[in-house]
Design brief:
The complex is a heterodimer of chains A (about 190) and B (about 100). With about 190 residues, chain A is an all-alpha fold. Chain A contains 8 helices and no strands. With about 100 residues, chain B is mainly α. Classes of the chains: A mainly alpha (about 190), B mainly alpha (about 100). Chains A and B meet through helix 2, helix 3, helix 4, helix 5 and helix 8 of A and helix 1 and helix 2 of B.
């Protein structure tokens, strides 16, 4: 897909160009959001939101970054907004529970997540790892997911999340350290 | 490497070689449907933004209450002043008539 020509066609409002764009990027957007959100339905919803956003704002895309970087950036932003919204919902759920209202239904709690792309022999362990990833701070979670789930390089990640290459390296280092600790606790509790 | 370290290392590597998750093949149709129904877009607001709006509203209501109280006091005071002026005026007229 020629980026320059598709951007030009999108700006001219060609419906076939938008169709091509969705078909080329839908798996990448979905895989990134499912990695971050760990819920299939939420990831499908965010994928659609991302393309609606692209449709609305493509005229303002100045081509300062690659098209894929821009799309990944929107995906990460939308997923982060969703995660923050969910966290707020969880907090208000706790408050409702404290006051004896029906707070339990607001947040279903941590669900066992099975990524559809993991190898059969790794299913069990990757589910444990995803559970640990969900406990990481959002910036570490984003960097780790983009690298491990979407297979992006540190340079690409730095362009997407708008930090320097050394900051991405540091985020990855801290993410691995935190995951080692979380997995160690899990092992002591369950695997001994 | 002991068993625990080995388990942690293997778990950390469990995402290696994974495939990309496939999205819904009808994504394009669903996106176009959402664009057509653009009025029902879901918006996730930042908590700080909501607090700012709430603070703004409280300030607005406070200013309204303050101005209401202030102007009602002011109008009461001016009514009293007008009353005094009127009674002085009529008592003066009465004096001239006499």
């Amino acid at each position: 897909m020629d980026e320059a020509s598709i951007i030009e066609r999108l700006r001219n409002g060609e419906p076939s160009a938008f169709h091509e764009l969705v078909e080329s990027f839908r798996d990448r957007v979905f895989n990134t959001s499912i990695g971050l959100l760990q819920q299939r339905e939420d990831a499908e919803d965010i994928t659609q939101e991302v393309f609606v956003e692209i449709y609305r704002s493509v005229a303002g895309f100045r081509g300062e970054s690659k098209l894929s970087t821009w799309i990944y950036r929107i995906t990460v932003q939308k997923s982060m907004e969703f995660l923050r919204w969910k966290a707020r919902k969880k907090r208000s759920g706790i408050i409702l529970q404290l006051f004896g209202k029906e707070g339990k239904e607001v947040h279903p709690g941590l669900v066992h997540f099975d990524h559809p792309g993991t190898r059969l022999e790794n299913k069990e362990r990757s589910a444990i790892l995803f559970q640990a990833i969900s406990k990481l701070p959002l910036n570490q979670r984003t960097a780790f997911t983009l690298h491990k789930v979407e297979g992006l390089s540190y340079a690409e990640i730095s362009g997407i999340i708008g930090v320097s290459l050394s900051s991405v390296e540091s985020l990855m280092f801290r993410a691995k350290q935190n995951l080692q600790q979380l997995l160690s606790h899990y092992y002591d509790k369950n695997e001994k | 490497m002991n068993t625990k370290e080995q388990w942690i290392s293997e778990t950390l590597e469990s995402l290696d070689g994974m495939r990309r998750a496939g999205s819904d093949p009808e994504t394009y149709e669903k996106v176009m449907q959402r664009i057509r129904m653009s009025g029902t877009r879901r918006v996730y607001l930042q908590a700080s933004f909501v607090w700012k709006i709430a603070a703004g509203l409280i300030l607005l209501i406070g200013l309204n209450v303050f101005s209401l109280v202030y102007y009602s006091r002011l109008s009461k005071a001016s009514e009293t002043q007008t009353g005094v002026l009127a009674s002085d005026y009529f008592s003066y007229i009465n004096t001239i008539k006499l």
